[in-house]
Amino acid sequence: MTENTDKTPSPVRYLKGVGPSRAETLARSGISTVEDLLYYLPRKHEDRSSITPISRVRVNQTATICARVVDLQSAGGRYGRVHRLMLWLEDDTGEIQAVFFNQRYLEDKFEDGMRLILTGKVKLYGGRGKSVTMQLVSPAYEIAGDSDEPASGGIVPFYTVPAGLSQPLLRKLMRNALDLVDSELPDGIPETLRRKRRLPSLRTALKNAHFPETERQHREALRRLKYEEFFVLELALALRRIRNLRQTGAPMKITPKIDSRIRALYPFALTKAQEKVISQIRADLQSPHPMNRLLQGDVGSGKTAVAVYALLAAVANHYQGAFMAPTEILAEQHYRTLLRYLDKARVKMAFLTSSAAARRKEILGKIASGEVDIVVGTHALVQKDVEFANLGLAVVDEQHKFGVMQRASLRTKGRMPHVLVMTATPIPRTLSLTVYGDLDTSILDELPPGRRPVETHFVRRGSEKRVFDFVKKVIETGRQAYFVYPLIDSPPATPKPRASARGCLAALPATRNDNSKAADFSPRITSPEGQLRSATEMHRRLSKEIFPNLRVALLHGRMKAPDKERIMSDFKSGRTDILVSTVVIEVGVDVPNAAVMVIDHCERFGLAQLHQLRGRIGRAAYHSTCLLLGKPETDEAQRRIKAILDTTDGFKIAEEDLRIRGPGQFFGTKQSGLPDLKIADIIDDFKILRSAREDAFELVRNDPALSTAPNHAARVLLMRRLGKKAGLISVG
Ligand code: ADP
Ligand code: MG
Predict the structure, then answer these.
(1) What pTM value is reported for the model?
(2) pLDDT digits over 12-53, tens only?
(3) Which of 268, 294, 296, 454 to mutate to test the pocket of ligand 1 (most atoms within 8 A of CB)?
(4) Residues 64-89: pLDDT tens digits?
(5) Are residues 146 and 75 in the same domain?
(6) CB atoms within 10 A of CB 82
(7) Distances (CA, A) of 211 to 32, 40, 66, 154, 669
(8) Second label for 48, Cα 20 to 30 Å away, from 26, 429, 534, 727?
(9) Ligand 1 proximity of 663 Cβ (cutoff 6 Å)
């Protein structure tokens, strides 16, 4: 038995009805085994049980018939006359005609002897001396082929047919392949689970996915195949997690003394949510296995404060800590924040980015010798030449901007450091169960006290004056404001012709760390005025024409690091009133006195970006306002604006974002680790995903090697689907 289940499914070329040349054709559609063929599901089904024998067709009713062409004739089509193609058709019970007008190309399509399925209204034709016949007028037609099911064929599958094959042939091959399911494809879902979830067996599911007798059978079949797809993915994630649990990490001891020394550094009381997350992290750090935790918390929820706890715990245990941010501005800001927290602690900090080239060598030396306790930096931290003496914890802020690969490369820096990934773009539940499904998750679902929700308004293009007046008033009360634009510079006067905005976007390289670029995934249409406002141009106008008496500064990603630093610190300390910027301030920037944000060309920003940008204000007890200026024209842009006006709940926004853009775009990079799902959909089939995950994790908990007899087939399925290449299985 076991030998049988271990063998890989046989090549499709040995299937009855397939020879070398058809095998080649199938291979071009990605079908090389019998299994591939069986999972090549129909694109639709049609209910053929409604086919009427010709003898029972009634005049003035719509009927579907299945009949053979016995003759065909065409007439007209010249000198302005209507072209008419007549078909004479018959089945076992009678005869009928079909007529098509002005569809000359059909002459080449139909031939004598061909079997057709036709649906149309039945009329009487003839009279006045000629015989009267029934006629189908301009029916919908479909070529049924010789070996098609009989007229009473029930529900019939339709495939996307690879060039050179035909619908009937594919149906025949499927039937042949279905005969092999028992001997070729062991059911990978253990029977207990099938029973628990009321799932049909693999054979029944495959049969009904192709040839169901009822719609319900078809639905159940798909449910099973979707479950199976999620089940494989979740098994892999569960095994990855188990493997992680077997690794030795950097176990720490967090004594009450260490705990209270860390707490003394906070100038505020921790929120309940922060306390809860810190206790989860504390448990992880003290366990012998490396932590692998995702910390989600809306902007301003206090993630950095939590990270500080973990970093100090590491240092107290004589490990080094690394804190990685996606942009230099952010890294810089975290560095300052940490310096502030650690003012009274005896901790040696270093700052490392790629632009700090001059001191780089010196800093690297200190990291390698262990002279430095905590290093803050950008992705420069994961470059090859960085060596840690004893890295115990890596904190990665704003996960979305880091590829999964970079997360992985941190792991090679120490033996097996604990990893804490923080994201302010909440991960929709669907994705936290898949892409991030091997991480433990913590959520900061409570804002520090004293915050007031940001008020958001949409202002139509043309009403800028109202915006400027409002901003002026707020600044007079002592607050500060951001103005955000999608571009650094205005494009040249004559914009380059674009074939398709979408196409162009698709061709852009995925430079996730380029913090200067505008609207990374959104933007589609140049504004109707033809010109996009840019930060540089608007900085000039705002400072010279609109707010001549205010201090207006410009910040963008192409500036040199020291300039950026100076501009940020001027704004932070209140030496400037208005900061004109690009999305460079999207993440993490923290200036509590800023209470207004104007986002111009708001239709060009993605939903996540809008949410992040808005999160820059409302960071203190002041009343804050976000003004979205623009002219959303596409349906998608309107949905984005509506979503951002409707809620400030980051999770809801993330779910909506995922819905609008679809999972591929949501992540934007190939290496996101997004599962390649063929049948299931992570949004529509969320419930199935959740049960498959629950089952897979429980299975792995009870049988980590998948070695018991009932789980053997699950293991075979996993190996077949994901293979060893994924490196997921280190069973036994
Ligand atoms: P995040 O990283 O989640 O955006 P931060 O940790 O940067 O949030 O915190 C945002 C702001 O709130 C900071 O100014 C921080 O000092 C402050 N803060 C954090 N936790 C608390 C708390 N428990 N009570 C009051 N203020 C807090
Ligand atoms: Mg932050």
Answers:
(1) 0.64
(2) 988 999 989 999 999 999 999 999 999 999 998 877 777 888
(3) 268
(4) 898 999 999 988 877 778 899 999 99
(5) yes
(6) 9
(7) 22, 13, 19, 9, 38
(8) 26
(9) no
